[in-house]
Amino acid sequence: MRILYLDCFSGISGDMTVGALVDAGVPPEKIEAELKKLPLSGYQLRWDRVVKKGIYATKFEVMMQESAMDHHDHESHHAHRHYSDIIDMICRSELSSEVKKRSKQIFHCIAVAEAKIHGMPVEKVHFHEVGAVDSIVDIVATAVALTELNVDYIVSAPVPLGCGSICCAHGTYPVPAPATLEILQGVPIRSSHLSFELTTPTGAGIIKSQVNSYGPLPSMKVSAIGYGAGARDLPDQPNVLRVVIGEGTHARADSLSSSHLEEETVYILECQLDDMPGEALGYVMDRLFQKGALDVYYTPVFMKKNRPGVLLTVLASAPHVEQCEQFVLKETTTLGIRKDIWMRKVLEREVVSVATSYGNIRVKQAIHQGKVIRQMPEYEDVKEAALAHQAAFLDVYAEAAQQARKKIKEE
Ligand SMILES: O=C([S-])c1cc(C(=O)S)c[n+]([C@@H]2O[C@H](COP(=O)(O)O)[C@@H](O)[C@H]2O)c1
Ligand code: NI
């Protein structure tokens, strides 16, 4: 299994990541060629070799051309820089499906955090005109480089954040920036007294959406090393991101065999309950879903003293585990929770809307190796349409499924 280790001892940003991956062997021409598949202009890429506290590293920079800077405040340009426009632009491009997938994952992570902080819908998150080009280039270039390196599993060191403050479009913000901290919930972070922004929202988005696990350098046969330079000079340490690529040599590494990001980690929480009323169990399940659990289920079990009870199982991703645990401890009679991390393989999912004689119905599509392999009309939409039109649930379901199949054939 090919492993990529992100040794972010001085933090991580988008340009540091691209610089490090190129330093480790990704041809810059490949990145430039792939970026040309996006309808972006007014920028140039710069690749320099620089020394950071004695370490020779690749410095990647997106240089905005004067004309693009002049248009910064122009309304028509702003109109194309919402999260939904950027995702649209990526989807419509000729980039490979894996590059699109990785790019969308990173952007989604950042947009969800920005939306929460600024109190707006995700689709409306605004990337500033000049900053948007920089973000798109950093993120898509990272996705191209990760795809090119063909890694199966990504591990990161705990992420240092820095301290102090930064000036951004909103004014003076504390470090870590609100978006960075929001994104990194559930990720092991490291405190740092360096008065610099060591990790940016883009760096945090890359870590959160692309990394499979966290910890020290895994056992591996190293085949490539890269150093990507950050913008500033730190007082006592090189401001670089180090990446290490190699073949996993640990038994666990082989057992984690995966096909890219279809494999992810999921937490499993469990406890047995034999003294709770059924109504309270129903309440607990509902609330756990609201707290972000991926799945919650009860299994009947026989417990000590011949008592019938239930085994509560909660599946949750890293950002929601703590909340789910606290809720189970507070709202159930258990005295403890067992916890484990599992690997899981997941199909990519996409929700599309189809027009039917009962109105628009959302259909969830399961995608495998770039192809739609299953289409499932959304239960809530079918139910609502069936009730509104006094139609049979199965009739509405069948028409939505038929329209979804037709849509695929037409594409
Ligand atoms: O402009 C916006 S919306 C903005 C929001 C935030 C929040 O934390 S909210 C932070 N920043 C700062 O902008 C620079 C650029 O970050 P990149 O990830 O795009 O490199 C960085 O200093 C952020 O902390 C901007
Ligand atoms: Ni913001």
Automatic annotation (TrEMBL):
Catalytic activity line of the entry: Ni(II)-pyridinium-3,5-bisthiocarboxylate mononucleotide = pyridinium-3,5-bisthiocarboxylate mononucleotide + Ni(2+)
Coiled coil residues, start to end: none
EC number: 4.99.1.12
InterPro entries on file: Ni_insertion
One Pfam family named in its UniProt record: Ni_insertion
Listed GO MF terms: lyase activity
Domain of life according to the entry: Bacteria
Record carries keyword Lyase: yes
Keywords annotated in UniProt: Lyase, Nickel
Signal sequence interval, chain numbering: none
Family, as annotated: Belongs to the LarC family.
Task of the protein: Involved in the biosynthesis of a nickel-pincer cofactor ((SCS)Ni(II) pincer complex). Binds Ni(2+), and functions in nickel delivery to pyridinium-3,5-bisthiocarboxylic acid mononucleotide (P2TMN), to form the mature cofactor. Is thus probably required for the activation of nickel-pincer cofactor-dependent enzymes.
Protein name, entry field: Pyridinium-3,5-bisthiocarboxylic acid mononucleotide nickel insertion protein
Gene (name only): larC
